[in-house]
Task: structure prediction
Amino acid sequence: MSLAPLWDVLTWRDAIDLLAVSFLVYNLLLFIRGTRAVQVLLGILVLGGVAYLARFLELRTLEQLMTGFFLVVLPVAIIVLFQNQIRRALVNFGRNPLIGFTTQGHSEEIFTELVNAATTMSKRRIGGLVVIERVDGLRDYVENGIVLDAKISFDLLITIFNPSTPLHDGAVIVEQGRIAAAACFMPLSSNPELSTRLGTRHRAALGISEETDAMAIVISEETGAISVAVEGRLTQNLDAKKLGDRLHQHLVVEMRGSARRTPKADVATVDA
Result:
């Protein structure tokens, strides 16, 4: 069969329409890959097959039941089950495509202060959590803490997380190279696959990395281990050099327009 008639009826609008749909479907599949949404999608496909068989076999009662399910119950169920994923997807679509060119990277001087503070707290067994803003805004979390708007320094970070000070319990948020606030409360990760050895700070670090694209540095009070959480992944037991490399990678290289990884929704993993 010749394809000439097909090309005769297709217009440039049809081509754009097909490309747009293909782009949306491809990105949707990337977004749900490796998450529980895959199992939900398979379940929906199975129910769709049941609905098709009910119509084909003229099972009217079952057909009406499945039609009501797809029209009423399914949309509400999807919103309730995947409200966090839907919010993150909308945030990703709403990001400025030129962000890599308009966002200034963090300076090496800031990295030095952060690394020195983290390694000193590690040696002294002082717990701490530093959340660094990347693209997604953290203003909602800043407002639930104590606003500081101070320059990042080794002395200030050590003072904030000193157990005898009132600001040590909570996270420090870094915005645009400055300490925006301290004693901020972060959302805790509820992923059931996390090890029970992880305390509240580690779950808070993973929680904020799941909710936003922020980078979190966490120092364990029990072991002194330094960990970094980004996009739902926790990397543990970092030394000063590895921590510096992570800061440079996530706050300089990726912020200057390198390809962003697809968020790993609902999959919090731990690297040794």
About this structure: The CA atoms of residues 172 and 182 lie 4 Å apart. The chain is about 50% helix and 15% strand. Strands lie at 128-132, 146-151, 171-175, 178-184, 215-219, 226-230, 233-235, 269-271. Residues 60-81 form the longest helix (22 residues).
